[in-house]
Amino acid sequence: PVGTAVQFKITALDHEHGFEIEGVKDSCVSIPKGETKTVDYKADKAGKISFKCCHVCGLGHGGMKGSFTVK
């Protein structure tokens, strides 16, 4: 629901990646190979929220994206 604090724990297994939530200024977080980063997000609006890899990481980079829904 709106107002909920969401915590993402992301691990880069093969090489450096990034994590960015669409529409959140300066939200790109670098995730070095073998490390886990925690990203906190407060769901301040309802709707579909998109995220993606924000570091060019190889041939599959364009497909590294997803979304979650805030109600």
Brief descriptors of the model:
four-stranded antiparallel beta sheet; mainly beta; about 70 residues; about 0% helix; two-stranded antiparallel sheet; 6 strands
What's the SSE blueprint?
Blueprint: E1 5-11, E2 17-21, E3 29-31, E4 36-42, E5 47-52, E6 65-70
Short description, anyone?
With 71 residues, the protein is mainly beta. Helix content is 0%, strand content 48%.
Task: Please tell me about this protein's structure.
By secondary structure, the chain is mostly beta strands. The protein has strands at residues 5-11, 17-21, 29-31, 36-42, 47-52, 65-70. The protein is built from no helices and 6 strands. The strands form 2 sheets. A 4-stranded antiparallel β-sheet has the order 3-2-5-6, with no helix packed on it. The mean pLDDT is 93.
Number of strands: 6
Strand content: over 45%
Distance between the termini: 5 Å
Radius of gyration: 12 Å
Q: Runs with pLDDT <50, length 5+? A: none
Largest sheet features: 4 strands, antiparallel
Shape: globular
Number of helices: 0
The helix/strand class is mainly beta
> What is the string of SSEs from the N terminus onward?
EEEEEE
Quaternary organisation = single chain
Main-sheet strand order equals 3-2-5-6
- Helix percent reads under 10%
* Mean of pLDDT: 93
